[in-house]
Write a structure and sequence with these properties.
Radius of gyration: 42 Å
Strand content: 25-35%
Number of strands: 12
Order of helices and strands: EEHEEHEEEEEEHEE
Distance between the termini: 151 Å
Largest sheet: 6 strands, antiparallel
Length: 252
C-alpha cells in the first residue's frame, strides 16, 4: 500500500467551476520502539567492548624496567652503562617491589647478589649507599630521650657524646662532631626503658666509626643536635665532675 494519497483542493476561481487540484498527503513516519533503541545500544556497547579488548591485546607493555647489559659481579658499583630499560609486563605485586624503572636510581649502587646478563635487576641484588663516597655508615639503637626526644630527621647533624664509668669516676667525652643523620626509625617501647629509635649516622673516617662503636658498646650515648651550629667542642674533649672535698672532721 502506498504511503502517498491525493486530496482534492478547490481553488477560489471563476464562476464556471473550479478545477480540482490534487495535493499530496504523506503518512507520518513512526518513531523507533523502545526495544529497537535498547537493541541498538547493546550492539554499540558490544562493538566498543570488542574494540577495547583488541586494543589491549595488540598494545605492548607500557612500563620499562632495568635489566643487566652484562654479567654483574659481586661488589661491583653500577653505572649507567651496566643496565638498560626494557619494556615488560610484570604482575602488579611484583612490579611494586621487584623492579627499577629508572637507571639513575641504580647509579652508584653496589651489587650484593650476582646478576646475569639479561636478568631483571631487583632490590635484593643491590645496596645503594645513602652517604657520600668517602663516608661510613653506622646504626645503633638509642632511647628517644637521649636523641633529642626522638625529633631528629634525616639530613640533620648531631654531636655524639658518651659517658663512661660511674659515680665519681665517670666522665663524658665528645666522640664525634657533626655526624650526619641518614635515618631515624622509631622502635618499640617499654615501661623500663621508654621509647627507642634506631639511628643511622654517616661518619667521615674509620677512626670516628671505631670511637662511636666503642661508645655504643661500653658507654652511654647521648645525641646533641648540631644542625646549623658551630659551637660544639672538638672531638675528644672530656668533661669530669669536679672532685668534691671531703668534709673536715672536727678537732678538739
Amino acid at each position: 500500500m502506498s504511503d502517498v494519497a491525493y486530496a482534492p483542493q478547490r481553488s477560489a476561481g471563476t464562476a464556471a467551476g473550479a478545477a480540482a487540484v490534487s495535493r499530496p498527503l504523506r503518512r507520518r513516519s513512526s518513531l523507533p520502539t523502545g526495544r529497537a533503541v535498547v537493541g541498538g545500544l547493546l550492539v554499540a556497547l558490544s562493538a566498543l567492548g570488542i574494540f577495547a579488548a583488541y586494543t589491549r591485546a595488540t598494545a605492548g607493555p607500557t612500563q620499562s624496567y632495568a635489566v643487566a647489559r652484562r654479567d654483574l659481579p659481586l661488589g661491583g658499583r653500577l653505572t649507567a652503562e651496566d643496565v638498560v630499560l626494557l619494556p615488560m609486563e610484570l604482575p602488579p605485586a611484583m612490579a611494586e617491589r621487584a623492579g627499577f624503572s629508572s637507571v639513575r636510581s641504580l647509579e652508584g649502587a653496589t651489587v650484593v647478589g650476582p646478576i646475569r646478563r639479561g636478568e631483571l635487576v631487583q632490590p635484593g641484588d643491590v645496596v645503594r649507599k645513602r652517604s657520600g663516597p668517602a663516608e661510613l655508615e653506622i646504626s645503633f639503637a638509642i632511647e628517644a630521650s637521649r636523641a633529642v626526644a626522638g625529633s631528629l630527621r634525616p639530613g640533620e647533624e648531631v654531636d655524639v657524646l658518651a659517658t663512661f664509668g660511674g659515680g665519681a669516676d665517670s666522665y663524658s667525652v665528645i666522640v664525634v662532631r657533626h655526624a650526619r643523620v641518614l635515618a631515624a626509625v622509631g622502635g618499640g617501647s617499654s615501661l623500663a626503658q621508654g621509647r627507642s629509635e634506631t639511628i643511622t649516622l654517616a661518619v667521615s673516617s674509620s677512626e670516628e666509626a671505631l670511637a662511636l662503636a666503642h661508645a655504643i658498646n661500653a658507654g652511654e650515648v647521648t645525641l646533641v643536635r648540631a644542625t646549623g651550629s658551630s659551637g660544639s667542642g672538638p672531638p675528644g674533649q672530656t668533661y669530669r665532675a669536679p672532685a668534691q672535698e671531703k668534709p673536715r672532721s672536727g678537732g678538739a
